[in-house]
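Would you mind giving me a polypeptide sequence along with per-residue structure tokens?
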Amino acid sequence: QVQLVESGGGLVQAGGSLRLSCAASGRTFSNYASGWFRQAPGKEREVVAAISRSGSTYYPDSVKGRFTIFRDNAKNTVYLQMNSLKPEDTAVYYCATKNAYGLGKVRSDYNYWGQGTQVTVSS
């Protein structure tokens, strides 16, 4: 059974940084593609970063240049480094992994999800 546990969320001022972590059990991250999503109140869950098994990455324009997804294979953990945070980045952030190798850019691409971690950016 695959379980994902996110950590690292919190309250930060605009312009600040946070690093989210996603630890997996029952899944070796380096063998599959993974991603980070976010969902703000009243909005759809959207991808903010994705990484393929080979290490290719994808970012939507809204976070490109500010967010970075990367893996630590020794720790079996996927990270999301978020810099230059804006109030509009406020949301619950979710880690996800899929039963395939290629980049996943939409919610339906993914098979397993974490419980989410709140990120709040104050102005």
Remarks:
- Residues 49 and 59 are 5 Å apart (CA to CA).
